[in-house]
Amino acid sequence: MQLIIAEKPSVARSIADVLGASDRHEGFLQGRNHIVTWCVGHLVELAMPEAYDRKYEKWRYEDLPIFPEEWQFIVSEGTRKQFNVLKALMHDSKVTEVVCATDAGREGELIFRLAYQKAECKLPVKRLWISSMEPDAIRDGFAHLKDGKEYDDLYKAALCRACADWLVGMNATRLYSLLYGQTLHIGRVMTPTLAMIVDREESIQTFHPEQFFTVQLDAGFIAQSERFKDRETAEKLCSLCDRTAAIIQQIDRKSRSEQPPKLYDLTSLQRDANKLLGFTAQQTLDYTQSLYEHQLVTYPRTDSNYLTHDMENAIPGLVQKVADSLPFAKGLEIPVQSAQMINDKKVSDHHAIIPTATMTKNPAVLTQLTTGERDILNLICVRLLCAAGKPFLYDETTVTLNCAGHIFTAKGKHIHQMGWKAQWYTFRGSLGGRTADDEKAEPEMPADLVEGAEISSVKASVHEGKTTPPAHFTEGTVLTAMENAGSEDMPEDAERKGIGTPATRAATLEKLISTGLVERKGSGKTKSLVPTDKGSALAAVLPEQLMSPQMTADWEQRLKRIEQGQDDPGDFITDIESMLTSLIETANRIPNAEEIFPSDKKVLGTCPECGAPVTENSKGFFCGNRVCGFALWKNNAFLKSGGKTLTADMVQDILQNGYTVAKGLKSRNGKTYSAMLMLEQDDNNKPRLRAVFN
Questions:
Q1: Which residues have a Cβ under 8 Å from the Cβ of 598 and sit 6 or more positions away?
Q2: Residue 82 near residue 39 (C-beta atoms within 8 A)
Q3: Residues 306 and 343: beta-carbon distance below 8 Å
Q4: Which residue from 508, 500, 514 is spatially nearest to 549, judged by alpha carbons?
Q5: What pLDDT, on the 0 to 100 scale, is given for residue 491?
Q6: CA dist list (Å): 134 to 156, 363, 425
Q7: For 360-387, how does the pLDDT look when each residue is reduced to its tens digit (9 = 90+)?
Q8: What is the 3-state secondary structure (H, E, C) of 242-306?
Q9: Terminal CA-to-CA distance of the chain, rounded, Å?
Q10: Is 338 helix (H, G, I), strand (E, B) or coil?
């Protein structure tokens, strides 16, 4: 009997329906020859540092770096019940083979392998690798199951990614949190992304707008002069030109062709959904994943914009059925240019995201979708129609006018063939005011213009403008920046560029926001991503090696090579450990750090060791630079013997004068006395308070 392990219950149900496993049990479905169960995401995770040694429960500089000699894995409490179901099924005597049916990608492979290993399963493994949850695709996938060993390198890459993130996150987060006295989250992909957002914000804040003036001529079309720095010059030209003749000095017409857009990969879908609908990257991924599980679209976590040649014959029929099922596409002529969507060399694990045939067969399913799911499905559908279409053909015309000895220019278009834009604009129109639209249509230029002709009387006017700063990042534009980061230093044929992957970039943005380093701002649908004060401060103190998109992009390339069996996982982890060792050895707290990382705790004074602020917590009084290690404990042994504890007022005296006077101490015979407590260092150079009675 086959034990089939899916990633989620919804996927398991789809597989079970195809295989006839209809008997429901706690945590699984069973048929005559198959048992279908699921993982509920990550059942098994990398253990936290304290699992290796209890000393790591406290964050101490002297314990860094933390490099596990042998990685440990734990079953999280929230998923233990389902893990026990999987483990029992893996050891059921009726089960002879396990089928990995988790999502066909790096993370899906990791989820299955960790559960398989933690359960100490020894059964042979087959791999189901499909890009669609349609019944035909599932049946075909089971007819062509692969040997699980073929995906060993994929698992190694996935495990390396998880371990690399653990190493950077645990060590760098602890290091900088100790240095600056507050929790500062640092991640292998998260931190370079933060750096890009901070750099953009600094460019905006330091931008100085410059005022300028132009003169515009209304000659039946609008022509514009060069920019002038002062209004007076512009007004002089305006008075010279107003109601006078202008000569058409030159007409430059160029034929242009705008090719159809490529099919969606996940990042381009997230970008459009953010721009048009205001969805966050995570919302778009969640909606698309749900559509995939409903068998309405193909696998979402893809970085490809193309289909494979074996799909070419089915494309015309799919395009027409999709068009017939969409109200906004009815009556449109949909030419299908299948070849332009096919490129086997640019399809790695999964092809582009497209609607499935199931979507066109079952209209009732569409009525059950949420508004968000329906919006994303419509985007994917119209992208298919556009990608199959003809080019948008037009003439771009530039007209140069001479008026009063000055040159004015005008630009416009003359459209010859709408091509794929007919579908796109019809779709956009169907959304009404629900989308953000920043496309500016160029005016149609008159067709009868000839060089040398005189326009007898033009109307001139002065227009004022200002130079504008770079735009704030939105989720759509920051996804593009992540995708392209470091690409200028990579070979043209590099399979994966940028930082992060299509599957992880949305989670990276959410982590930046949840940890208080970035926030969404704005009242419109498409909000800006801006760094918080904490995020800007963190970027200011981190070294280039942690913030460089080039280094992180290089790591992604190496992970891809590990996936292909071309790089050694051990070397990859060793290089990251070497980088972290150097980082910890050379890291120093910057001067006046308290100014950019202000504490909400009362500052009692400055540390006599390093000059950082000293504040109070429940157990004592500590330097804000935890790497320094200066600490005075409330339960001081001498004071405790006299019935007292160290107070904030006493610590203020110590930090200011080097001593304090403890009054009201009681001896063993009940007498009251006072003592002076002098601050000094013990034999290990640790601060201590010595009692002086003279």
A1: none
A2: yes
A3: yes
A4: 500
A5: 46
A6: 29, 15, 30
A7: 887 777 888 999 999 999 999 999 999 9
A8: CCCCEEEEEEEEEEEEECCCCCECHHHHHHHHHHHHCCCHHHHHHHHHHHHHCCCECCCCCCCCC
A9: 87
A10: helix
pLDDT in tens, 88-131: 999 999 999 999 999 888 889 999 999 999 999 999 999 999 98
The string of DSSP codes covering 172-241 is: HHHHHHHHHTS-----TTHHHHHHHHHHHHHHHHT----EEEEEEEESSSEEE---BSSHHHHHHHHHHH
Q: Is 265 left (phi over 0), alpha (psi -120 to 50) or beta?
A: beta
CA–chain centroid gap for 148, Å, is 30
SS3 content of the chain, % helix, strand, coil (to 5): 45, 20, 35
Cβ neighbours of residue 331 closer than 8 Å, sequence gap 6 or more: none
The active-site residue, picked from 116, 151, 155, 299, is 299
Per-residue CA distances from 300 to 132, 289, 632 (Å) = 9, 6, 55
The number of residues making up the chain comes to 694
Q: Are 175 and 61 in contact (CB under 8 A)?
A: yes
Give dist(CA 555, CA 659) in Å, integer.
Answer: 53
Q: How many CB atoms lie within 10 A of CB 691?
A: 15
What percent of the chain lies above the pLDDT cut of 70?
96
Catalytic site includes residue 264: no
Q: What is the pLDDT of residues 245-293, one digit of tens each?
A: 999 999 999 999 999 999 999 999 999 999 999 999 999 999 999 999 8
pLDDT in tens, 297-330: 999 989 899 999 888 889 999 999 999 888 877 7
Residue 110 and residue 79 in contact, taking contact as beta carbons nearer than 8 Å: no
